[in-house]
Design a protein that fits this description.
single chain; mainly alpha; ABC transporter involved in vitamin B12 uptake, BtuC; 2 domains; 14 helices; 2 strands; 67% helix; 1% strand
């Protein structure tokens, strides 16, 4: 049985991109069918005035309507009349997509380095607060208007990246120099981040004009601007932010595939023995990888402040935890993160459409979307396990002379 399981993992590890796309589509179809049955049967236990009558039982929920609202409602019902490209539902979907790209990239970079960063949420929280505080205080010495926009937005994003990066470096250093398990440390640092930021907020940065736990709002000219004419006015979303996320996504793909740093990062994650034998400083790479991962999470916090709310709020949504599922679904591919983030954005926006247009309870909607994510992500999850643990040729490095790399002959071979 164990041999069969390892054989299956090896086959999954060697799948081509086309194979993985076909499997994902098949998994999505299976999830839709199973979820539809679940929704239909659940309707038999609900009370309603009208529904489908079968065998004396009234089924209150229509799976077709639920899926219509889930997928098309998230786009603003494009098949209906009066649809606009800048409608509220689509803007809400793209807003979540943008934020989840940053969170997904954060997790993906760490995983590609062989590290499990469960602390993106904490890094996002710290980065968001650093952004809000930096912009608010810098606005007092920076001119307003266009100059303020050009100066304060990059400054705020940089502050978020630095805050998140420094916070991500902590578990990286603990892993490198104290051999601390990064899963445990990053989980604990999520809790610490929430406590520290809450304390700093009440002690120093609380908005005196508000009873809610939040910082002073950043100036309006320091928020991410809309594109004239085609901007989304009904929801706090900017196509410029999405464009930046896409550029960053492409940049990370280039970094991992085309640079020596990316090569060392990938090798240390996929073949740590070969990386060490090739001269890669494992400790330095661990800290650098977690710092980069944290910086990406911090940028997500910066855009949450500068695009969505215009200030830092104590109640930060679980974007960092969603980023874990986005990364797994994307196979830790920076380019794949974009598609996975859009799917999650559709689910989050479509769930609100379902709650508005149908009587299906939000708990059942959560089960439905979770089921779809589970079906689609599990094949990719097992493929990643196969690549990491049982894929052929990834266990031990081999010397160029065919000898054992663990054996040192102690001489130049001429004695």
């Amino acid at each position: 049985m164990s041999n069969r399981f390892e054989s299956l993992l090896e086959r999954l590890a060697g799948l081509s991109v086309l194979d993985r796309i076909v499997i994902s589509l098949a998994a999505l179809l299976a999830a839709v069918l199973v979820g539809g049955v679940l929704v239909f049967v659940s309707g038999a236990f609900a009370s309603c005035r009208s529904g489908l009558q079968l065998g004396g039982t009234t089924f209150c929920y229509n799976p077709m309507q639920v899926y219509y609202e889930l997928f098309l409602g998230a786009l603003g019902h494009p098949l209906e009349g009066g649809w606009s490209l800048t409608n509220y539902s689509l803007g809400r979907t793209l807003q979540q997509t943008t934020l989840l790209i940053f969170a997904g990239l954060s997790v993906a970079v760490a995983f590609r380095a062989g590290l499990l960063n469960i602390g993106t949420q904490g890094q996002l929280v710290v980065g968001g607060l650093a952004t809000a505080v930096t912009v608010v205080y810098a606005a007092s010495i920076v001119p307003g208007g266009f100059v303020g926009t050009v100066v304060l937005i990059p400054l705020g994003v940089l502050a978020g990246a630095v805050g998140g990066g420094l916070y991500g470096a902590i578990p990286g250093a603990l892993k490198a120099y104290a051999d601390a398990n990064e899963v445990i440390t990053t989980i604990m640092l999520n809790i610490i981040a929430a406590g520290i930021t809450s304390t700093l907020l009440s002690w120093q940065f609380q908005d005196p004009d508000s009873s809610n736990p939040e910082t002073r709002p950043v100036p309006e000219y320091a928020e991410i601007p809309n594109i004239p004419v085609i901007g989304f006015e009904e929801v706090n979303f900017s196509l410029l932010a999405l464009a930046f996320a896409v550029v960053l996504m492409i940049g990370m793909a280039w970094l991992l595939a085309r640079t020596s740093f990316g090569y060392e990062l990938r090798t240390s994650g996929e073949q740590p023995g070969a990386a060490a034998y090739g001269g890669v400083d494992e400790k330095r790479m661990t800290v650098a990888s977690m710092t980069l991962s944290g910086a990406l999470g911090g940028i997500g916090g910066a855009f949450w402040v500068l695009m969505v709310h215009g200030q830092w709020l104590e109640n930060v949504p679980s974007l960092g935890f969603d980023g874990i599922a986005v990364s797994v679904l994307a196979g830790n591919s920076p380019i794949g993160v974009g598609a996975a983030a859009f799917l999650f954005g559709v689910f989050q926006s479509g769930s609100q459409s379902i709650s508005t247009a149908t009587s299906v309870p939000k708990e059942l909607v959560g089960v439905l979307t979770g089921l779809i994510i589970l079906f689609v992500a599990m094949p990719e999850f097992f493929r990643l396990i196969g690549r990491r643990y049982v894929a052929p040729g990834t266990t031990e490095p081999v010397r160029t002379d065919g000898g054992d790399p663990a054996v040192d002959d102690g001489g130049d071979g001429d004695a």
